[in-house]
Design goal:
Elements: E1 2-4, E2 13-15, H1 19-31, H2 40-49, H3 52-60, H4 90-99, H5 102-110, H6 129-141, H7 144-155, H8 157-201, H9 203-210, E3 214-217, E4 222-225, E5 232-234, E6 244-249, E7 257-259, E8 267-271, H10 283-293, H11 296-305, H12 312-319, H13 323-335, E9 339-344, E10 347-352, H14 354-369
Parallel strand pairs: 1-5, 2-6, 6-8
Antiparallel strand pairs: 1-4, 3-4, 7-8, 9-10
Helix pairs in contact: 1-8, 4-8, 6-7, 7-8, 8-9, 10-13, 10-14, 12-13
């Protein structure tokens, strides 16, 4: 996924936390606790303390923050006069949300970023019959409550928008005020730090601090985000004010979200910390490791290599295949970073790197959820 930044001055890159985006991440963690095993204690405690009425309303609207993220959690990105800056309080962010016109709000609320038309944009379901049909079809696939909610939103946008604001305000009163009080200083410090890195060391260094999955393709003047999803956006659209905003989140890992809808300012929503000090493995590396382990002979080979180090000749004898064939399989495993190799005299010993293999499950999960 890439974002065009050709000719974009450094001062148009903004690092800033967003209370509404953080609330959206917290609501996502409550709706999809399996995505966030590290938050198990918080999600269990918070969900258990919710009043039944609030829990029911959150369930009713959870397609806004459930399996996918709605762009309505970042309204500043659709308003040119914000200069890419979110509000400093949830009330300020909600005021920005109120400023979106009905067509823009409904289109963002009922569109999900895994659809093929996300980058291209298109008419609002309020004014286009085909867009309305597709929006209702997607909502229906998520269950009758979501379908009913989508129908009400299309029938009376102002009433449902007011209902959503009350819901988010009730979340603030129920749990998010305490959450924001706890995380806002850390998020603001992270944003300041990365702004300083950008100012003193340049964009490439700042992006490396955001995530090892985000990089600068300087020859092509674009930011590249290593995700399984494909898409592109531009940070030089004058309609919404040229620029890009980076929003830190304490609840986000393993997700690294990219708002790149047409007509919106690009936003990279990044987790402030990952559990692995080395950072996430690239999607290409995870793919190469899974492919390397998919061959039945290499699986048999790994059974030996996981226990102790073997020479090529020893593996050939144990597996009943030729030494050149063993060498070819070892080369595939080594290229995928799955082997440790050391020399003992004239012999080269190969052994499976069990730490890398042990991380493969979590690396794969992070790759598909990123």
């Amino acid at each position: 996924m890439w974002i065009d930044i050709a000719g974009l001055p450094a001062e148009r890159l903004v690092f800033s936390p967003s209370p509404l985006a953080e609330l959206g991440s917290a609501l996502h963690a409550l709706a999809e606790p399996g995505h966030h095993p590290g938050l198990h204690g918080w999600t269990t405690t918070t969900a258990g303390a919710l009043e039944p009425d609030l829990a029911d309303r959150l369930c009713e609207a959870d397609f806004l923050w459930g399996p996918t993220f709605s762009d309505v959690s970042m309204p500043f990105a659709a308003l040119a006069d914000t200069a890419g800056q979110p509000g400093s309080t949830l009330a300020e962010d909600l005021d920005l949300l109120d400023r979106l016109d009905d067509e823009l709000f409904v289109n963002a609320a009922l569109e999900i970023n895994c659809t093929s038309g996300y980058c291209r944009g298109g008419p609002s379901p309020l004014v286009d019959d085909e867009a309305r049909r597709l929006a209702l079809e997607r909502a229906t696939a998520r269950g009758p409550r979501q379908a009913d909610f989508a129908q009400r939103l299309l029938a009376d946008p102002p009433a449902v928008r007011a209902w959503i604001r009350r819901l988010l305000e009730d979340c603030e009163q129920a749990f998010f005020a305490d959450v924001w009080q706890r995380v806002r200083i850390h998020l603001a410090a992270d944003a300041r730090h990365k702004s300083e890195v950008l100012r003193h060391k340049g964009l490439a260094e700042a992006l490396a601090e955001v995530s090892s999955a985000v990089s600068l393709d300087e020859p092509r003047s674009r930011i590249v985000v290593d995700k399984l999803a494909h898409g592109h956006g531009t940070a030089v659209d004058p309609a919404v004010g040229a620029g890009i905003t980076f929003v830190p989140t304490s609840f986000g890992w393993p997700h690294l979200s990219v708002l790149h809808a047409r007509g919106w300012r690009p936003v990279i929503h990044y987790p402030v910390a990952a559990p692995e000090p080395a950072g996430p493995a690239s999607v290409a590396l995870v793919e190469s490791r899974l492919e390397a382990l998919a061959h039945p002979m290499r699986i048999r080979m790994c059974r030996y290599l996981a226990r102790t180090a073997y020479t090529t000749g020893e593996l050939a004898t144990a597996l009943g295949i030729s030494a050149p064939e063993v060498s070819r399989h070892l080369a595939v495993l080594k290229k995928a970073g799955l082997l440790q190799t050391r020399r003992r005299g004239r012999y080269v010993l190969h052994q499976l790197d069990v730490r890398v293999v042990a991380r493969l499950g979590s690396d794969f999960l992070e790759g598909v959820l990123r």
